[in-house]
Design a protein that fits this description.
Largest sheet: 6 strands, antiparallel
CATH superfamily of the largest domain: Nucleotide-binding domain of ferredoxin-NADP reductase (FNR) module
Distance between the termini: 58 Å
CATH class of the largest domain: Alpha Beta
Structural class: alpha/beta
Number of strands: 20
Strand content: 15-25%
Number of helices: 14
Radius of gyration: 28 Å
CATH architecture of the largest domain: 3-Layer(aba) Sandwich
Helix content: 25-40%
Length: 490
């Protein structure tokens, strides 16, 4: 009997993105009903699925480690206690299945005896034929050598290591892996849940568990009321998933949903990305992390004995790691903060104050079309955050980056783009050079039209003001609706 899987679980098992899975469904190659697919049909499309090739293993690890340089802090397997509870839950499910099978077997046996009594009391060809039909059916089931459903077995194995979570009312889905909490898994998957301290003190990550079981893995001081506990509320930052879950959770969809914050972070690393671009890596305290949407900006400030240095910069890292924040700072003599950074006034372990986030240059998570990013020089910084967030959220459309440069070292993270292209089937990128910024903007749009054939997609433009103006003008002339154009000038 074929096993039913959600599209997210099917993508997880076969090692493809949800976007690729949706394309097979849209083309008719993979039948689906109510968001579910059968393992039988899935194996027809992906006949060579093996455990070691599944999305829960090599593919996901490759995206995280090679494409994003993410640190894998935990093993794939959860801790012993959670693992034991997941195995117990599956054992209970197996016991229930066995109980039903035994009941059905007893029912068939009783029916066969009843038919024998009826035939003995009043011989009938129809009753005799029915008895033979039951005997043949039982012989066929008991003597069947049909191989096990590969994907069903694989799904059972992966359910021990990962729990599937569905969010209401958005319908978003993600997986809890290893020892991570539900909140950590939601952030890693590109969701924007409501949260604050991430230490079980503020209660902002409180959510209602509609179905499934969780287990507390971190201490919490936030007191849930008896009524909240009775209704199934729990703190996502201190609990992991024991079984598959369905939860009611608040999510941020607009910049206005994110509160402004003031945090004192520490300089972890300063290193050159190019001769005139510096990577500034800040780390927030564990108890006060920055909640933001990809593409947003913050104000950085350093207070010294002689002067205060301030500057507004886009965050170049993904919100899925809200503690480690990256910035690409250009050497600008008119920018006091940048000048101090390049002069060595700001050093490792120095405190830096963050104010924000702000800005509406953010992803529309509800779109299903392809997305293009057109950037110039260090305008790549916010696009990097957007791309990583789109991949983490498993957005259905293809992602295309066109990176224009007006100087020799303008493509300062081209190797990063190559890593994305190698790891992700849905990502492609192109680079070009131009003598000036307006020419670069026009050339980038021309390249987009040459590659895509149409600009009818979501387009994000970032870079110097004159580049952004030229690119936006060319996009509008090419027929891009204003509602699908998003831009920010540096």
């Amino acid at each position: 009997m074929s096993h039913l899987l959600t599209v997210s679980r099917a993508a997880h098992l076969t090692g493809v993105t949800r976007a690729d899975m949706q394309k097979h469904i849209a083309s008719g190659a993979l039948p689906s009903h109510d968001g579910m697919v059968t393992t039988e049909n899935l194996l027809k499309v992906f006949p060579d699925v093996r455990l070691e090739d599944s999305g829960a293993f090599e593919r996901i690890a490759k995206i995280r480690e090679e494409a994003f340089g993410r640190r894998i802090r935990e093993r794939i397997l959860p801790n012993q206690e959670v693992l034991a509870q997941r195995l117990t839950a599956q054992s209970e499910e197996l016991a229930e299945v066995r109980r039903h099978l035994t009941s059905y077997h007893d029912l068939i046996g009783a029916l066969r005896e009843r038919i024998d009594l009826m035939v003995a009391a009043s011989p009938s060809e129809q009753l005799t034929a029915l008895g033979e039909f039951i005997d043949q059916g039982l012989a066929g089931v008991l003597g069947s050598d049909e191989p096990a459903d590969t994907l069903e077995v694989l799904d059972d194995v992966l359910r021990v290591m990962t729990a599937h979570v569905k969010v209401k009312p958005s319908g978003r889905e993600f997986f809890v892996e290893g020892n991570e909490t539900v909140l950590e898994a939601a952030l890693r998957a590109g969701l924007a849940p409501s949260y604050g301290c991430r230490n079980g003190n503020c209660g902002l990550c409180k959510a209602r568990i509609v179905s499934g079981r969780t287990k507390q893995v971190h201490h919490t001081d936030y007191p849930l009321s008896a009524s909240e506990r009775a209704q199934g509320h729990t703190l996502l930052c201190s609990h992991t998933a024991v079984t598959d879950l369905e939860i009611e959770m608040l999510e941020a969809n607009l910049p206005s949903d994110i509160p402004e914050q003031e945090i004192v972070a520490t300089v972890r690393k300063i290193e050159p990305l190019a001769t005139d671009i510096m990577l500034l890596h800040l780390q927030t305290p564990r108890t006060s992390r920055l909640r933001f949407l990809a593409g947003q900006r913050v104000t950085l400030s350093v207070s010294g004995l002689s002067a205060n240095f301030r500057g507004d910069y886009p965050i170049a890292s993904c919100p899925c790691d809200d503690r480690n924040l990256h910035f690409h700072i250009c050497n600008n003599p008119e920018d006091d903060f940048a000048r101090s950074l390049f002069a060595g006034v700001i050093k490792a372990n120095d405190p830096v104050s963050l104010f924000g986030p702000f800005g509406d240059f953010v992803l529309r998570k509800d779109v299903v079309t392809d997305i293009a990013f057109i950037v110039c020089d260090s305008g790549f910084a916010p696009a990097k955050s957007l791309i990583e967030s789109a991949v983490a959220a498993d957005m259905p459309g293809a992602l295309q980056l066109i990176w224009a440069a007006t100087r020799d070292n303008g493509h300062y993270l081209e190797n990063q783009c190559r890593a994305w292209a190698d790891a992700l089937d849905t990502f492609s990128f192109f680079t070009l050079k131009a003598n000036d910024r307006p020419a670069a903007g026009a050339a980038a749009v021309t390249r987009l039209l040459a590659e895509a054939g149409s600009v009818r997609r979501e387009v994000y433009v970032s870079g110097p003001a004159d580049f952004v103006e030229a690119a936006c003008k060319a996009l509008m002339a090419g027929g891009l609706p204003a509602a699908q154009l998003h831009y920010e000038s540096s």
